[in-house]
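Course assignment 3, question 2. Fill in each field.
Student: A.L.
Task: Predict the tertiary structure for the chain below.
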Amino acid sequence: MKFYDLIWLIPILPLLGALINGLVSNRLGLKKSVTNAVAIAGSGLAWLLGWAAIVQWALELGIHNTHIVSLFSWFQGGSLRILDGSVAEVDVAASFQLDPVSALMVAFVTFVGFLIHVYSIGYMHDESDRAYARYFSYLNLFMFSMLVLVLGSNMAVMFVGWEGVGLCSYLLIGFYFEKEWCAAAGMKAFVVNRIGDWGFLLAIFATFMVFGTLEFTEIFPTAAAHPDHYAA
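Answer field:
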């Protein structure tokens, strides 16, 4: 098994950290040292696996090649007649891809995300054990969402990451929800992200109606081959 075949595991690692700290450490009030170990392991292992996958992909497949890992067919919704008159099948896979853009973003997100986790250990040290675990659960979940956003091989998977980032922004901004101004700031972030959701959903629908697919590896070459047609 190649590291670049495990790119799906990169976001899963911080997700596991979020679940453990959110469902176990927070509920049981476990010590901060346990929360630290779980949070740092989730973000740190994602960083190591991400960089290992990028290096191996670049050396063995080349940085100009896109590598896709498809886990399963997410949903199938029959067929639709798109703008050019043809019929396109609605078949969206839960899949991830490694290309120059996603590789750059994975390297950045995992490295900076890991540093933020390390910095937060000292910054949040005075919080109660439960609040401490809740914070790191949110932070791990934010990293998971960012990685899904940048690794998704189609617009549907990217949208899942987008929604997760919006949710985590709301949770982290309003972390001290007992303070009125924090709760208000979190709600503002939530509302702004919901406005963005409508634009994203419209873009997904419009893209499918034009190209008959949501897969980036099919959209970009088609658009590049007929720039004047799609610009109009």
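Instructor remarks: The mean pLDDT is 90. The chain is about 70% helix and 10% strand.
Grade: pending
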